[in-house]
Amino acid sequence: MQRNLFTALLYGWIFVFSFILLSSIILALLFRFTVFNENSLSWIALAIGFITLFIGGFIAGAKGKMKGWMIGGFTGLGFSLFTFLVQYLGYQHGFSMEQSLTHLGYLLAAVIGGVIGVNIFGSRSE
Q1: Is residue 126 part of a domain?
Q2: Does the keyword Transmembrane apply (predicted)?
Q3: Which residues contact 62 (CB under 8 A, 6 or more apart)?
Q4: What is the pLDDT of residues 4-36, one digit of tens each?
Q5: In a 3-state reduction of DSSP, which class is residue 122?
Q6: Structural domain that includes position 62
Q7: What is the pTM for the complete model shown?
Q8: In this structure, are residues 34 and 75 in contact, taking their beta carbons and an 8 Å threshold?
Q9: Contact 124/66 with Cβ under 8 angstroms?
Q10: What angle do CA 104, 107, 110 make, to 5 degrees?
Q11: Is residue 97 situated within a structural domain?
Q12: Which whole-number Å values give the CA distances from 73 to 17, 101, 106, in the listed order?
C-alpha cells in the first residue's frame, strides 16, 4: 500500500515538474519575442501554476485510489519545498508573504485535485 501511494505521488510530481518546466520555457519565449510585459505574463503564470498543481494532485489521487487529500497535499508540498530550496539555496531568499500565500493556494489546488481524483477513479468497495 505504501509503495502504491509513493508511486502515485511520483506520477503527480513528474507531471507537475515537467509541465511547469515546459510552460516556463513557453512563457520565457513569449516574454522575449512578443510585446507582452511582465505583469500580464505573471497572471498567466499564476493561473498555469494553479491548474498544473490541480492536475498533478488529480493524477496522484487517481493513481493512488485512496487518501486523496494526503496524496494531493504531498504533491503540493513537494512542489513548494522544491521551489523554496531552489530559491533559498540558489538565490539566498526565503519566501515572501505573497509567495507563501501563493504556495498555500497551490497546496489547496493539489489537495482538491487529489480528492477529486480519488473520488472519480478510486476503488468502489461496496
Answers
A1: no
A2: yes
A3: 8, 117, 118, 120, 121
A4: 889 999 999 999 999 999 999 999 998 899 888
A5: coil
A6: 2-121
A7: 0.90
A8: no
A9: no
A10: 155
A11: yes
A12: 15, 15, 9
